[in-house]
Amino acid sequence: MQLKKSDIKRQAILEHAYRLFRAYGFDKTSMAEITAKAGGSKATVYSHFSSKEELFVECMMAALENYMPDTLKHLDASRADPGIALLNFGSSVLNFICSSEQLEVRRLIIAEAARSGTGKLFFDKITALRAQLATFLAACMASGSLRRADPGLAAEQLGAMLEAEMLEPLLLQVREDSPDERETARAAKRAVDAFLRAYAPMRPLALQLKQCPN
Amino acid sequence: MKSKTEAKRLAILKAASEVFREVGFERASMSDIRARLGGSKETLYNYFPSKEKLFFEVMHQAKTHELEETAGSLNSEADDLKQELLRFGQKFLIVLYSPEAIGIRHLSISESRRSNSGKLTFKRAVVPVEKQMAEFLKKAMKRGELRTADAKIAAIHLLSLLESELLQRVLLGVFDSVKPEMISGAARRAVDAFISGYQRR
Question: Quick check: ipTM above 0.85?
Answer without folding.
Answer: yes
